[in-house]
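Intended use. Records like the one below are meant for learning the mapping from a protein sequence to its folded structure. Do not use them to infer anything beyond what is encoded.
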Amino acid sequence: MNAVNLAETMQALGAQARQAAARMARSPAARRNQALRRLAVLLRESGSALALDNARDLERATAAGLSAPMIDRLRLTPQVLDTVAQGCEQLAAMPDIIGEIVGMKQQPSGIRVGQMRVPIGVFGMVFESRPNVTIEAASLSIKSGNACILRGGSEAIESNKALARLVAQALEHAGLPADAVQLVQTTDREAVGHLIAMPQFVDVIIPRGGKGLIERISRDAKVPVIKHLDGNCHTYVDDPCDLDMALRVTDNAKTQKYSPCNASEGLLVARGVAAQFLPRLGAVFAAKGVEMRCDAEAGALLRTVAGARVVDATEQDWFEEYLAPIISIKVVSGLDEAIEHVNHYGSHHTDAILTRDHVHAQRFLREVDSASVMVNASTRFADGFEYGLGAEIGISTDKFHARGPVGIEGLTSLKWIVLGDGEVRG
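Structure written out for the chain above:
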């Protein structure tokens, strides 16, 4: 596709999305829920056909030499399809928040002032590898009364096209515009450049992928971006602490799965419990092959553990998101140093304190400047599904509008409404 045709195609997608957004915003909740339930049925019925399209992507990815983890993310297994189908059904069962009015208060003038929740309009989403994101984004868009333009990775193009066709069928089945969810059909990278520079059609961009993709979009977008760059999450083991609980939670936060953005990449341990805790944790990590990049104090305690993989930490290690069986470990004097370290080196995504001290817990909650802050829980819980949002379209570390896991509410806005009975301003 030449540059002129690509520009025209993207403009057409934008115009169609804007028109569809108006219809979605005024659509009854029952129709949106009907579309979601129909989409769940189609996903379960179409497993064999989807497997053929997915196989073409997998074959091309293998021939191109993509890594095993990348190929694994491309697979539309029956389990993956059932999970996204369940997500559609869960969203359909959730209350409708569009049109909800909050904070209505009578003013001295006689007017009543409050806020109404409304759809954001049109969002663009740029994502890599996992084709199931097509359904997650589409289902959240439908539930929240928005329209969206989706641009998946070239490695999943056939799978994404097949899934987008099912979404269009479900929308039409419910009497909603098929253009409410549109997939960019070309793999031309310049399509992204157009999508992120159409403020007349697109209200917000949501990138979901590697740091390079998100940095590029954040730099070049001409519309607001909901994003997080890094997931450098921390677990802090306080003094006093239930060390059995701390061992279980810290292990889960790091090793339950290494690749998600909410896995703990840094561990801070209060000096008062370090000698008791770190050798026990070191044995667990040694058994699982986790490399520990330590300051001098933590390293001295962990090198006593048989089989422990201990490396001296560099300054860069405190900033690092490993997405691998590697963790940075530092002994700190206590709560103040832990909070200072997290706020300086962390990515403001998710951080947890493990403690028996209520005052310490409350200070950590107030003073750690992150989108999710936890007490006595694994950072792996920082997820839209686990937070009861039904699903998430991504995680935001920005401070305006949406922060943390972005679900239905994050795809809406509040507008002020005023109810009067002929009042005039004196």
